[in-house]
Amino acid sequence: MCSAGPGYDESTLVQSVAEACRKGGGDAPIPAEARDALQTVSKVLNIGWIGDALAHQATTICSRSNRCPRPVNACH
To answer: For a FRET experiment, which of 10, 25, 62, 65 has its CA 20 to 30 Å from that of 71?
Structure first.
């Protein structure tokens, strides 16, 4: 088990964000537990842009391949 901090399992956090994006067609609000963990890391490491980014939705960024999990024509 990997740990992203006290009480957080990084695999679970990543999967929760990925699942939210899948359900949202590629974009989705960051789930609360993942947002809280990232906010904690942002404050502890003094990385302001992480905290700033949490005000926005997560977005699936696909490589130029046929394996993008976003719906067809969802990318700009």
So the answer is: 10
